[in-house]
């Protein structure tokens, strides 16, 4: 592997921005300092005028392999990640068949090592009766629990089953927090009269809060590390502000839940805006953003869940829930920072440092000696317009079609190798991605 010297970048960290050079040897950062002198045989990357972030991490994606690769697979999903500045991802288990055994998760790691452009980790999925499997897969980044039914067949909604999972083992539990019984009751009440505009009321704020409340209760009862996926409601944000325990409980938010506002977005996009948990009214988005800025919510994610146009065009309720997002995560947040809603160091904290810390990722999330040489290089003066038909995700559509964003990802670097550059995913990057390493000492006793 060639050694690399990145010169003249504005290096962004959660605590500030400083001009520095970054020296990389064998995929690892060895020096971060101003005025480094090139060494013989060292590749030089001139980055004057660019801002260098730690590699962006998306801790919640669905890349559909195995079983639904007509929508996405590990290669196309990781290619989309690279084009958006994402250098590592964590992928969910609701594939077909679902990833509910240690053998299946290990097979996914082996497959990803031949296909992925960026680094990766995989969740193992919980069922009411696979506790032994959940606790015999150290490679998994965490245990995914669907407390409410969504896309796929995974569901753990009964309290005794949840108690058994929370009460046995040490690995982080990440929950899709919607109360299944409340969802079913709301569906039954509306019956055949339900429309797309009813979707956020079928999967109501009360259903989200009830499940989040139960998950937090069990986390505290068993001292079990809990991560609440894709928070969507003001009520959850207020509850976490009161009840969250740092180091034990964490939470994330997806940009669509504060950028795409109901009911208008359903009128504009129809079932292309349908997802679980749903897009909601403006009050929820404002509260979620405040919770992120205040540190109540720890990080961002996408819940990247692509479906084809043919599937989305089936109409409500037949259309599947979910939308693509890994490719636009960082561009959307960068635009938000450049429009004054937050700072660039905020992005480094929410999108790089926090996910690495929350999941115990080794060598990720910072531009420091000893860390992996994962970088997202951006030009703040450029602009990018999101266009359907010009995306890397296999479904090739985005709910942000036509949006022009400030700032642009120019290069994505994974362990010292450029995998995306000026609009092109580097072909040689396929198979460059490696399994993420997780610190076993990080798991709670």
Provide a short characterization of the protein structure.
The protein is an alpha/beta fold and 445 residues long. It is built from 14 helices and 18 strands.
What does this structure look like?
It is a single chain. With 445 residues, this protein is of the alpha/beta class. It has two domains: 4-52 and 367-429, Roll (Urease, subunit C, domain 1), CATH 2.30.40; 55-364, TIM Barrel. It is 30% helix and 22% strand. It contains 14 helices and 18 strands. It has helices at residues 74-83, 102-115, 131-134, 159-166, 180-190, 199-202, 205-222, 234-243, 256-259, 264-269, 282-294, 309-312, 329-338, 344-359, and strands at residues 4-13, 16-25, 28-33, 43-46, 51-54, 56-61, 86-91, 119-122, 124-125, 143-146, 173-176, 226-228, 249-253, 299-300, 375-385, 404-414, 417-421, 424-425. The strands form three sheets. Strands 1, 2, 3, 4, 5, 15, 16, 17 and 18 form a nine-stranded mixed beta sheet that branches. Strands 9-10-11-12-13-14 form a six-stranded parallel beta sheet. It starts with a strand and ends in a 20-residue tail after the last strand. The model has no long low-confidence stretch (mean pLDDT 96).
Major β-sheet annotation: 9 strands, mixed
How many domain regions?
Answer: 2
In terms of DSSP E residues, the strand content is 15-25%
Radius of gyration: 21 Å
Q: From the structure provided, what is the oligomeric state, counting identical versus distinct chains?
A: single chain
Query: In DSSP terms, counting alpha (H) and pi (I) runs of 4 or more, how many helices?
Result: 14
Helix content: 25-40%
The shape, in one word, is globular
Output the CATH homologous superfamily of the largest domain.
Metal-dependent hydrolases
């Amino acid at each position: 592997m060639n050694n690399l010297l990145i010169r003249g970048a504005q290096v962004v960290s959660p605590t500030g921005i400083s001009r520095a050079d970054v020296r990389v040897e064998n995929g690892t950062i060895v020096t971060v300092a101003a005025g480094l002198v090139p060494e013989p045989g060292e590749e030089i990357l001139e980055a004057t005028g660019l801002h260098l972030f730690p590699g962006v991490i998306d801790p919640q994606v669905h890349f559909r392999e195995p079983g639904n690769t007509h929508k996405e697979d590990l290669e196309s999903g990781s290619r989309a990640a690279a084009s958006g500045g994402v250098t590592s991802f964590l992928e969910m288990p609701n594939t077909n068949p679902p990833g509910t055994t240690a053998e299946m998760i290990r097979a996914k790691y082996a497959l990803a090592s031949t296909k992925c452009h960026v680094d990766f980790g995989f969740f193992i999925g919980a069922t009411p009766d696979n506790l032994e499997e959940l606790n015999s897969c150290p490679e998994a980044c965490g245990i995914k629990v669907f407390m409410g039914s969504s896309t796929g067949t995974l569901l753990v909604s009964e309290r005794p089953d949840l108690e058994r999972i929370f009460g046995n083992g040490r690995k982080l539990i990440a929950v899709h927090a919607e109360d299944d019984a409340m969802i079913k009751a709301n569906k039954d009440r509306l019956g055949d009269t339900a429309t797309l505009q009813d979707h956020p009321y079928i999967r109501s704020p009360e259903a989200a809060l009830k499940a989040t409340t139960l998950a937090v209760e069990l986390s505290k009862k068993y001292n079990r590390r809990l991560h609440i996926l894709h928070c969507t409601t003001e009520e959850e944000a207020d509850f976490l502000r009161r009840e969250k325990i740092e180091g034990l409980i964490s939470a994330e938010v997806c940009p669509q839940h504060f950028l795409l506002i109901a009911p208008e977005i359903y009128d504009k996009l129809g079932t292309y805006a349908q997802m679980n948990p749903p897009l909601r009214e403006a009050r929820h988005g404002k509260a979620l953003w405040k919770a992120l800025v205040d540190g109540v919510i720890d990080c961002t994610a996408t819940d990247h869940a692509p479906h084809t146009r043919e599937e989305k065009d089936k109409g409500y309720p037949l259309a599947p829930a979910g939308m693509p997002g890994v490719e636009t995560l960082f561009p959307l947040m960068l635009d938000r920072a450049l429009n004054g809603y937050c700072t660039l160091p905020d992005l480094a904290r929410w999108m790089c440092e926090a996910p690495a810390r929350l999941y115990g990722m080794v060598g990720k999330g910072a531009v420091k000696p000893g860390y992996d040489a994962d970088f997202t290089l951006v030009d703040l003066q450029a602009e990018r317009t999101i266009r359907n038909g010009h995306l890397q995700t296999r479904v090739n559509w985005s709910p942000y079609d036509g949006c022009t964003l400030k700032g642009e990802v120019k290069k994505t670097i994974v362990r010292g190798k450029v995998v995306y550059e000026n609009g092109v995913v580097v072909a040689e990057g396929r198979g460059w991605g490696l399994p993420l390493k997780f610190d076993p000492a990080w798991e709670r006793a």
